[in-house]
Every structure is written in structure tokens, then in C-alpha cells.
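User: Could you check the structure of this?
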Amino acid sequence: MSPQKMNTSSRRIAVTALAVAALGATLSACAPLMLGGAAVGAIVAVDRRTSGAQLEDQGIELRSSNRLKDALGDSKARYSINSYNRRVLITGEAASDAVKTQITQLVTGVENVREVVNELEVTSSPSFKERATDTLITGRLKASLVDAKDLSASAFKVVTERGTVYLMGRVTQREADRATDIARNTQGVGRVVRVLEIISEQELANLNAHVQPPPESSKK
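Assistant: Sure, the predicted C-alpha cells are below.
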């Protein structure tokens, strides 16, 4: 087996194992999964955001969650906050339209947020089975993206809520269309929503030109 095929196979196994293990931690924040003595969360993938942008997105997610918890508590909504390049996606459920609007306003006011996409549903919280199914869908789709020879799986962030898949990332139109097609044909997916930042093929080439290959010692 060639090194490239071995690398793809290893990444696919890690993605699938992580998705299965996540079923046991759907209701809470989980510690890094250990596989063969190494944390899966430590697997380094090429991210098209700068390191500063990645840290800022983490900060936005934390600040947004804290602000919502302080303002709403735990009874008015169940939400998930995902930020990519300062563009925030909110998914989950809200008790009313008024609460949904309030959440948009609160997150919009968080420092450095440039856009908010509020996909909260005004409905009751999903069952454990529904959340487990969403976790499996995310795992299947990530594995399929890894398998796609014409895509960089690490360019996409995948969020699933009630069978609806949200795609985030900085990608070309070609990559966006290809990933959307893969998502639509993934078992269990009911709808695909693109929360993507479209870049040109030239911008992608410029990004790839700045990616440094790993040192020889890390390849062994």
C-alpha cells in the first residue's frame, strides 16, 4: 500500500472511530479520545484559517456561549455555537421566536463576530436517539470527505442537527459543490445548508503554496 493510501486510510479510521466514540458523550463535553495511546484530538490537519483566526474562533465560541448562558440560563434554549473565520452558526432549539431573536442579538454583540447565521428551530429538544443519529451522520460524512480524492476534508467543518447538515469552511465553488453532493448522498441526511466562504482557485493555490511539508522525522 502506498504512503498516500495508508495516510488516507488512517485518517478515515480515526474519523469513524471518533464518531462512534462520540455517541457515549453526546450529552456532555468530552475529553480527547485515546487511540493507541494518542489523542485523536491531537491529529493535525491543514486548516485554511490562520492560527490567529482559529484562536479567535475558539474565543468567539466561548464568549458567545457564556453570554447566552448568563442571559438565558439553561431552560429557554439548547444551542450549539460554531465559529469559522468569525462567521457564527447557531443550531439547536429555542423556546420561542422571541428567544431566537434575542440569541441572534446577543451573539451579534460578541466581540469580533462579523456575521451570525441563526438556524435555531422553535421546537422541543431532540431525543437522545436523534442526537446520536446526528453524530453518526457527521461521522459518515467526514469519512466520505476523507475518501474523496479531489477534496481536502480538513477544509470543511461539519455540523448536524436533526438530519440537517451544515457545511462551514473557506473553499472554492468546485469544492463547495462537490462536498454538497457528497453530503446529499450521505445516509440519514435530510437537508444540506452551506455556510461557506467561497474563495477563488487562485486564492486556494496561494494558500497551498504557503503550506509547509512536515519534517522528514515526522514521516517515519
